[in-house]
């Protein structure tokens, strides 16, 4: 019986291959977008972890030379013999046949916490590591390195990109730095009674462990962004799946009734149908995971470039996937199917065994359902407002966005129906009245696909508004910040001196660029020392200020901080900022500082010299009307080399490049989401087309030609798409506002002004209409070519 | 010889000893093993103070000191200071190329607590090593040093404890086995093994609860060899006891997979005169076990040496004297009662 029932159930898919295809394709696409994004995130995270684990930078305090970049090896021994538990590290880069390899040498016996792959790989490698002079290298560079060194190179994907780890002795000889170290890692737990560091190692400075989450925190927002996009795509895909499953189950009501009448228990039936869906979900999930891998591989270079450009975080260029990733892809496919099918199962389970099998494809009692959906949607809107108003943090921000989008999707069918009803009332001919009524009747069948289109278009409008607003603001910001024509980096104080005397009289002004790393208000921050002058007074604009900013900065009584720091630490003009122990300064102004992950404090040159007496300016901005001439003069006079000069336009181009790459991934995902929505419409129309013959036959019998019917089908698709577009624009703008004013502030620490780009929206609208038309073209064509006999059969059946 | 098992396990960690071990035995008695390590030969001729220093041609070596101490109120304490040398290859090399690895364990045991610490170092760079004259054995800030081995200071620090001690030898060196050639198994594995069991020790312990001045006696073992234990030997129970009447006993048994043991020992008179105890002359039977670090470890023993009328109970001062080191084991002070009274140290390895 069960076998026969299974066969009967399967026969449905055999007779409706298109439906099966919709189901599998929708699920595969949803899984692909989701798991692709997961792969990107996982790859980036494992790269951060590898870097942090290997270098101990996150976990352990470091001792670094006060000046220069070398610590004598004897210093390591003398610290150990004084009771300080330190582990030596030497770092340097090696040219391995054109590839730049970062060589890190450690002593596995004293590395705190057991650093690197040696301790992770079990016991045996320690012997090899020490006596066979093994080098563990990231697979990206392992081959190149193996060709240029004599030691055995072992590829280890757990390492940070472009990095090779080996014993400290091997590293010293590879780098040709015998008896030299770069830094010392301090074990977390130190024995008691050690002499103070400044007595026994005054030439070393303690660098506190960067909170290991630094890179994680900085990049967290980026990954959350990706995740949100993955989730949105998944949701859009699940809309398709839900539609397909709902349709299939509706169409099988008759079969269900028959099977149950023949004695198949409900439990078995539901079990069979669940098993059937699970098999489909697993197959589609597997396809999706493969597609997701391809997607991730295609996007990874841009993601890696973004992360490095924006955050300085290195991400390996090669995907390596854990089995857990495959499993989670399949899991999410199953979960999504379950979610999409739960309603259908509920209805089947509650259907009386002998219920009338009305095979109406989609219930006509949709009006009340639409009202209920709309109520739920309004509830979600309320939640969105509440989250924006009361919530804080990125998660709340994204939850707000999700409520907004899904609320809109739920309200949408009601809006659509009302709009079509209004049109119907105003129709001036019978034909158009029929057209509007017929369209309205199809809304329940199309609403899921249209919701998907709505979400995709709104996301598109929202994200493109954000990116374009960002671009405009960022360009303006670069103009404000990069005021000097030339930027020169000198090697040392002597060269700086020579530069200054040379440009005296040749440039309109010299801006020494002083900077020091610090922690301010509990955050990692950069302190900039500036020479207050027209370059700053004329160009910088403040988000908030309390007057005479530059005058007070020049005298050292006040400081300017960037927006990131102001928002994170809630410090605003009038508050005091401790710059050093016992040195608090008033905050005079807050400036925007796009693209900078960390806090920044701008102080006068004088105050900077007081706080950091040993830091000399080695980088200078030169103000000049004739940058090219000055540049040539500097090089000709042998003051600096060409590589030390950057002109303003090159800097701007570089910054814009970083910016553009940042949004490549977003844009790509955006387009994919839109494509998924287009696919949803095509599939819905195709499915409906077959079932609409009985509804179209009377219209045909009353004199509408098949051609005309086909043309009306096209119109219908365009009108529905246009209606969707009309709702999508305000929704997209609301989304853009949330991205700019809520998400960005939480994620990056800055708020962007919002600009509108009507032309972009028009282009998107045109594209959406074309897509809808393209999606409707095939069903319309099929309709136009339906043999009259088939239309006639409708009446035969009625008889 | 006591930490033989311990070092054997470390050798496993460092040298993947399983196949090597069989080879080593095959070559035993030929002066060196397959990897070029020297192998102890019978009838050794020691030369001092040089032999207090390291023997880099042998695979493993240690300077192993244990002490029984008393505080001002009579509270018993135990102290351990051990420096191990383990070679990846025979001989020395310059700087980081040295194949020698050093590591050390230090511990203080009180009736209520047991504190231990561990250090690691590479040879060749000066972070750890041993010189014979003047004597200095060190790793990081841990140090045993003096003009000669007869009069040394001893320091070690952990994250919650430290000690600073002075030791003076009040008797001669004692050679185990056949003049310092100590056989370890029926298969013939052996080591060079001598002790200084006559140290008087005083100094101060710094514990979490404060500084305690202490005095007592200490026992230094010196041993080096290249052969890990036989494959069928699973663990080790080692006793070093000082009886109140002046006699001392070193005894150990190696537990074998078939349930039998290989035992050996040395009876030491108050003047340092010795007699080697052969397999079966020392009988140790567990009386009571304690659950320590997830395993049952015998912490009260009956120890018999019928030849000397010894039938004593040996009980741990603190049954929880577990060394939480990379290679974990039990090591702590004991009290002796029965036919003889006294105190001493007990080490047990291989309890899984």
From TrEMBL, chain A:
It is a multi-pass membrane protein. The keyword Acyltransferase does not apply. It is found in: Cell membrane. The keyword Cytoplasm does not apply. It comes from the Bacteria. The chain crosses the membrane at residues 226-249, 269-296, 325-349, 370-389, 395-416, 448-470, 671-693, 714-741, 761-781. Keywords: Cell membrane, Membrane, Transmembrane, Transmembrane helix. InterPro entries: ABC3_permease_C (IPR003838), Membrane_comp_ABC_pdt (IPR038766). It holds the Pfam family FtsX. Residues 228-352, 669-788 form the ABC3 transporter permease C-terminal domain. One of its GO terms (cellular component) is plasma membrane. This is Putative ABC transport system permease protein.
UniProtKB/TrEMBL annotation, chain B:
Residues 1-24 form the signal peptide. Residues 60-226 form the AttH domain. One of its GO terms (molecular function) is hydrolase activity. Keywords: Hydrolase, Signal. The keyword Hydrolase applies. InterPro entries: AttH-like_dom_sf (IPR023374), AttH_dom (IPR010791). Transmembrane segments: none annotated. This is Predicted secreted hydrolase. It comes from Roseovarius litoreus. The lineage of its organism: Bacteria, Pseudomonadati, Pseudomonadota, Alphaproteobacteria, Rhodobacterales.
